[in-house]
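Lay summary. Proteins are chains of building blocks that fold into shapes, and those shapes determine what they do. In this project we predict the shape from the chain. Here is one chain we studied, written as its sequence of building blocks.
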Amino acid sequence: MLMEDVMKRIFVTFVVSVLIGMGSTVWASPLVIDLTTASQGSIPGGSQVNDLLGRGISTEGWYGANLMLEQNALVTFEFIGEEAGWNNYFEADADNDGNWSTLFTNNGSAWGSSYSTVFEADAFNFRFAAQAGQNGYATNGSNPDDAGDQSDDPNFFITEFTQSISLGESTLLGTESLEAGIYLWFDDGGAGQDDNHDDMLIRVSAQTVPEPGTMALFGLGIIGLAGVLRKRF
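And here is the predicted shape, written in a compact code that computers can read:
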């Protein structure tokens, strides 16, 4: 019985160690900011005010950047807030079939609401639709670089905060800070070249999805090891 107890302890330790290892690697964030067509800058531009950041507050990031997934992932989009006269949409095409689903709208979605779905690494399709698409789109993968107010085309600005940032007293968000993460700041171009990027704010996070075959093999291995130990002891 003593040997059986020892083997059981070894087995449990093995399983826990493997699960911890999977948790630290399999579930790492696969999000990457693609800076191939990007320019570094800050928002709001000039003397403008970003009403989500609050008066007197600016943040650095990238114009014209896009988001990529290194692996298949469960992606969560969170609608943080907006300040716009237009009813802008945030849409996604997770199935990569050309059918876009509306996740959030300025006039119909509650601030703080979120949506999660699985995307394949080579098909991270999401976009902002200015005035429900009537004034164009800012699509991931072809987000225009509008540094310096070059045009009034819809575009989004990307920031990545490694820690929470403080907001100004006049922020519309009703909170004192934004937590760490990747944020998409949309400018719909409705007010011309205002460059304030507060027409819609989305936070993006992701966790890698294990391949079904990998999980199946892991499960079979554990079952097999348990069977061997049971027969032996």
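What the prediction tells us: The CA atoms of residues 105 and 138 lie 15 Å apart.
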